Amino acid sequence: MWKLYVKNADGVALKTTVGHLKEAISQSEEQLFIGKIKHADYNAANFNDIQWFDLFFHKRVAFEHENEMRVAFVHGKEVLHPVKELMGLSIPIRIHSLFQKVVTSATSIDLFDKTKRLLEKHNISSDIEPTELALPPFSALSLFKFVKTLSSKQ
């Protein structure tokens, strides 16, 4: 996924939970909807029982690998008749509530250090680690997890 969403070799991903996301946006006065994206084959799907807000939480099956959550809002009656000037909405976010873990791409050790310093500068307490893709297939950590899994099954 790094190659899909990062233009150069350096990238940072933020891992969070629905609970962290709810806390982060809890000060908004807008009615916000949080939902997991459902994937459908639009040629074969039956949308007879769909609710209007479900429209914001569907994507084609081709995007299933994204495992995406989405936050959507309704701004007056523009849901079905969008106003062209309305391009988004600024909402207050408690950024410190959002972080569960920060993961850096596998290609840059320097990026890890820069990201760690940036989090410290803004007093954001979060675990930070390089992506597991940076580890060799049988690193000490992965070998330990594998052996631990085998022994717990016996």
Helix content: 25-40%
Number of helices: 5
- The shape, in one word, is globular
Low-pLDDT windows of residues = none
Oligomer: single chain
Note down, in words, how this protein is organized.
- By secondary structure, the protein is α/β, with parallel strands linked by helices.
- The protein has one domain.
- The chain has five helices and seven strands.
- The strands form three sheets. A three-stranded mixed sheet has the order 1-6-7, covered by helices on one side. It has a two-stranded antiparallel ribbon with strand order 2-5.
- Strand 6, helix 4 and strand 7 form a beta-alpha-beta unit.
- It is globular.
- 3% of the residues are buried.
- The mean pLDDT is 78.
List keywords for this structure.
154 residues; alpha/beta; three-stranded mixed β-sheet; 5 helices; 7 strands
